Structures are given as structure tokens and as C-alpha cells.
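Usage example:
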Amino acid sequence: MMKDNAIPFLDLVAPHLEAEEELVLLFREALRAGRFIGGPVLDGFEADFARFCGAQHCVGVGSGTDALRLALVAAGVRPGDTVVTVPNTFIATTEAISQAGALPAFVDVDRHTCNMDPEALREFLETGCEQKNGRAISKRTKSPVTAVIPVHLYGQTADMDAITGLAEKSGLLVVEDACQAHGAQYFSKREKRWRTAGSMGVAAAFSFYPGKNLGACGEAGAVTTGSPEIAEKVCMLRDHGQSRKYYHEMEGYNGRLDAIQAGILRLKLGKLARWNELRRQNAARYDALLAGVEGLTLPHEPPWSKGVYHLYVIRTEMRDELQDFLNKKGIATGLHYPVPLHMQNAYSRVLWYGKGDFPVSERLAGEILSLPMYPSISEAQMRRVTGSIRDFFKTRG
Ligand SMILES: Cc1ncc(COP(=O)(O)O)c(C=O)c1O
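Running the assembly step on the lines above writes:
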């Protein structure tokens, strides 16, 4: 049981209370139309979300994991290929690579942004690969490195100019894992304009898991892309490889986004810009309230980034003690993520990595702490969180 004055990590009630009548109406309309898969509501959401991301196409799918897997397959990743990503992410990123038949390879993250370090990618491509006819062949797997997945973790994009530049040189496809970054902005120096997450790779994957900045009332995801061919292929793959009913161009999956979730997402999408702005304001408030606490590192936003603070992640060497201290005061926190992927049991027998291979990710795993962050968190709640953190460091100082 939560204490009455407990501060939850997430608030999944407020955003739905705000739109309760409209949501009920939408559900009633779906029941009365008797249309649950496909149809105009899904088409409408896809068009709206594509526009929101500045992408030409959006294809709704069953989850973020589906979105990643289908994006990789549709973009042309083949069984046996190697796909590079980071160890500091949720396991769905590498599950999608393996489920596409490819092998995951890792490069470390930047210690300030916690996202893919372009220098580590450069080093991997220069020293971990042989270049043949403009393609990178992994020395370890002897297989072509065909794609890179930068993960826009915590709601902040990776440094896409640098990553895209390196990918282009080695003929790599860039597939964004934008599952935590609905609406995150990146200033591209190459293009001299702000870009939105989901519009910068050949394809991008979004999750609409309920706790995300744009969340469904169940499982849901989407692929965005500028390529009509990739969009068409994802459409077929999500629906058993069908081009039309019972005519299968390939084997696919059951990976559709249902019409009720699409309706809910379409309604909530209209509020997303405001919700993201509130998250940014709350992050700025946390920054101000926590400024100057010795032993604490606050989230870093480079000048090229306007993050959407899916998570507000602080760092301290006394992480476990601090989490325990806050927990006793009724303040819930999270760890994203406590074990880097190269050290997960799931990969201990199948990948060749071990402790020490990605020191930045390993260090972060022991220091990161996600504070309560949502549009509806109040000033008083943030003051209680930050006041408790200050108290903790005072007694330890
Ligand atoms: C970075 C990242 N990638 C992929 C996923 C997978 O999304 P889903 O849970 O919708 O399958 C998530 C979801 O938590 C995520 O945070």
C-alpha cells in the first residue's frame, strides 16, 4: 500500500481523467462501429503521428519491440548481418536485432548524455571492422555491419549528425530507437534546422507503452519513415505478409495496432506538445532545486537538444543509499537500467562481451536514479523530492 502522501514514480491516472469523457465516447463509437482492426481511426492516427514527427509515413504496430523488429527487416537487415547499438538501453533494442536474425554489437555511450558516443562508433568502424567496397565487415562476426540503432534514451536524441555521417561512410542504415522520445528535437548543423525524433533515420521505432510520453491504454507502437517502400513493407509484415486479404508476399507477423488504441493515441496526441512542455518545465524546476548539490550530477542537455524528459535521471556514487532513503520517505524512483545489456544473463552465453568492455555504461548502471517525472507532478511534490535529496547529502557530507 502506498502512503497517502507518497509520491509515485508515474501518474497514469491524471492524463486519463483529463480526457475521461472523450475516451469513453471514443470507446462507445468503436463498439457501435464494430470496427476493431484497421479502418479510418487507425489511418487518421497514422497520418497525425507522421505529421507530428515530420516523417512522410507512419505505420501503427503492436508494440515498440514490433516496431524495431519490423523496421529493421523492412529496411533490409538480413539474417547474419551485424547491427550496432548501445549496451545502455532496454533489452527490446537487442531483442529486435536478434529476432530479425542479426547479431547485436555494442559501442559505449557518452558519459554526459548517456546516449551513443559517436567516437565509440567511429572506433568500432575503424578498428573493429574491415572496410570492403565502402562496407564495414565486423572482424569479430565476419559479417557485414548493415545498420546502427541510436537509442534516444530518457527522451533526448543521440547526436544524429555525427552518427549519420559515420553511417553514410560505411553504408550503414540508421534506424532510430525513439521509443522514449516522442517529440524530442535535435538541431542538425548539417541541415541547419531542428529535426524531430523519428524523422532522422531510414526508419524509426516508437513505443506507446502506457508510461511513455504518448502512451496507449495497453500495448502499441509505430514505425515512422520517409520511404514509401519501407512503409509498405512494414504494413505487410505487421499483417502476416499480406498485400491483400489472403495473398501473402512473405511470411510476416501478427503485429497490428488495433483501432481502439489508435483512437486513444490520436486523442492524446493532441495534448502531447503541452505535456512535453510541462515535462521540460518540470525538468528545469528540478535543475534549479538541485543546483549545487555536491556529489550529484544532473541531466545534461547539449545545445543541439530539446529533450522531452521521458525520464529525469540524476547520478551519484551513493545511488543505492539515496534510493533507499527516498523510498523510506515515500518517494518512488526507478533505475534505467541497473544492468547494461552486455552483462545480462540473457547474453552471457551468446555474446562475447564481458565486464569492463563498456566502462561508461557500466559506471552509469551503478549511479543512475530516475526521479518522479510526469506533466502533473506538482511544485510541492518536486520540492519534497529535492528537499529530501538535499537532506540526504547534508547528512552524508
Ligand atoms: C528504449 C526502448 N526501446 C524499446 C522499447 C520497447 O517498447 P515496447 O515495450 O512497447 O515493446 C522500449 C520500451 O520500454 C524502450 O524504452
